[in-house]
């Protein structure tokens, strides 16, 4: 190392940006100047923990896939592994045709492996169609990508798409089977089909993960805010809030970026449309490669209800598309998570907004609260007045992994590769979940650290 201090900018203070700042601190050392610039008034992006009722509650992401190692490992690295908790394992439900049904089992993102798994949820004709599906000739184009609705609809029919697949894709991507491509969302299914599965039923069966004994989800006892605080404390970045990074341009060996000035390297951890705006002049190929990625907005209405409100003993309720109900899902948080079960209130999150339905997110707080209460009453019969409420809007909440997403990402990464001292990371690349964001941040920060270390 020479005596010069390395300086890097991280654009975007969501979990991707904060993990990147932490990795840069680990790899560049205590003297490096690491600046996180965040357009909003707080760090965390789509992770946000607020007080509700008698304690904290997450109003953005509320969990992570526990089968991926990234978050649990990060908690250990940050010394907050005692925060890790898992769900109680209660049954989730689906609201369809005006009634509650158990969530189908042995499905891949709601795509059934047998007719039996969606019995009761779809009609007899659809069940017969699923049973007969292996006998119907199947053309799968191993060189192409299609949307999930076209694949599932053509083999199993519309009811499976609307009642089983849409509710699950709505949960992960705020998406619809029409807005999500098979290859990025269901890589194991695509692999089984590419390998020559002769039916969708056979491909789903081959792609189903072997049941593992561990819990599927995890979260933090005191909310994701604990992770954000620990990341910030460990990364010790200079933080600029309420300031969108602009005017990115080459400056000698490094970059110029407002409002920071000259830096040796830049890590872009902002959502795709913001990243595109920022690099349009300095890296037009990168901007063009990311231009097809659309976003879905959503809103979360968190309700704290009296404990005697009669909330059902289920972890949550997903809603089929085409229902008159406005909500796309309810998380019955106090039932789902044992650490929330003995609070003085019963916590429920109602979620609104699927891809193409951004208007609902612009409803007033009063409208969204009224909708949440009415929808909860329709689905569960619970009409009790909440003791506390929080409304959170997520404009441009989740990127849609449309057909062709994998090629788009390859083009983005190849374009970014050609731009010295600039890296990209975030939910629009290799997965929208928090573990994928942690992985993406780690990869980008490691590459940038190797480039700028002197
Ligand atoms: C309602 C909801 C529920 C979810 N639930 C889960 C879940 O249960 N489990 C799970 O694993 N995942 C979940 N996710 C997904 C996950 O939360 C997100 O994908 C992840 O948090 C994205 O993190 P990020 O840092 O990449 O992006 P973001 O959180 O979007 O952060 C990017 C930041 O960049 C800032 N920014 C943009 N442009 C600029 C600029 N020019 N200059 C400076 N700053 C800029 C933005 O203000 C923002 O703060 C959920 C998402 C939503 C919306």
TrEMBL record:
It is an enzyme of class 1 (oxidoreductase). It comes from the Bacteria. Residues 16-448 form the Amine oxidase domain. It holds the Pfam family Amino_oxidase. Its EC number is 1.3.3.4. One of its GO terms (molecular function) is oxygen-dependent protoporphyrinogen oxidase activity. Keywords: Oxidoreductase. PANTHER family: PROTOPORPHYRINOGEN OXIDASE. NCBIfam families: PRK11883.1-1. This is Protoporphyrinogen oxidase.
């Amino acid at each position: 190392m020479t005596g010069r201090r390395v300086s890097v900018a991280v654009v975007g203070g969501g979990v991707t940006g904060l993990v990147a700042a932490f990795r840069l601190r680990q790899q560049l050392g205590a003297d490096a100047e690491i600046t996180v610039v965040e357009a909003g008034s707080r760090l965390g992006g789509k992770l946000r923990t607020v007080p509700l009722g008698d304690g904290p509650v997450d109003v953005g992401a509320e969990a992570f896939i526990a089968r991926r190692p990234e978050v649990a490992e990060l908690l250990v690295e940050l010394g907050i592994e005692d925060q890790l908790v898992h769900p109680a394992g209660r049954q989730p439900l689906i609201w369809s045709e005006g009634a509650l049904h158990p969530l189908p089992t042995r499905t891949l993102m709601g795509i059934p492996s047998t007719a039996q798994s969606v019995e009761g949820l779809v009609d007899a004709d659809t069940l017969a169609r699923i049973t007969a599906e292996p006998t119907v000739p199947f053309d799968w184009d191993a060189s192409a990508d299609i949307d999930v609705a076209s694949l599932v609809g053509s083999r199993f029919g519309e009811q499976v798409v609307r009642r089983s697949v849409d509710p699950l894709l709505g949960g992960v991507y705020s998406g619809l089977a029409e807005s999500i491509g098979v290859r990025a969302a269901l890589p194991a299914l695509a692999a089984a089909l590419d390998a020559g599965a002769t039916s969708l039923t056979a491909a789903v069966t081959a792609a189903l993960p072997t049941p593992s004994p561990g819990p599927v989800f995890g979260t933090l006892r005191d909310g994701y805010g604990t992770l954000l605080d620990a990341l910030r404390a460990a990364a010790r970045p200079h933080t600029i809030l309420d300031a969108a990074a602009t005017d990115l341009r080459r400056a000698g060996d490094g970059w110029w970026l407002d409002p920071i000035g000259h830096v040796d390297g830049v890590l872009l951890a902002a959502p795709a449309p913001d990243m595109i705006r920022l690099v349009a002049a300095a890296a037009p190929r990168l901007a063009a490669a990311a231009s097809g990625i659309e976003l879905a907005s959503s809103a979360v209405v968190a309700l704290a209800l009296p404990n005697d409100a009669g909330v059902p003993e289920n972890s949550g309720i997903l809603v089929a598309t085409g229902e008159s109900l406005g909500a796309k899902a309810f998380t019955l948080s106090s039932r789902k998570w044992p650490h929330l079960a003995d609070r003085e209130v019963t916590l429920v999150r109602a979620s609104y907004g699927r891809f193409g339905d951004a208007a609902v997110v612009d409803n007033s707080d009063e409208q969204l609260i009224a909708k949440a209460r009415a929808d909860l009453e329709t689905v569960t019969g619970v009409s009790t007045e909440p003791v506390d409420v929080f409304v959170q809007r997520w404009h441009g909440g989740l990127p849609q992994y449309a057909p062709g997403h994998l090629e788009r990402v390859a083009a983005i990464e190849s374009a970014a590769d050609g731009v010295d001292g600039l890296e990209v990371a975030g939910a629009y690349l290799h997965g929208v979940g928090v573990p994928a964001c942690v992985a993406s941040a780690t990869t980008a920060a490691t590459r940038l650290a190797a480039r700028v270390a002197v």
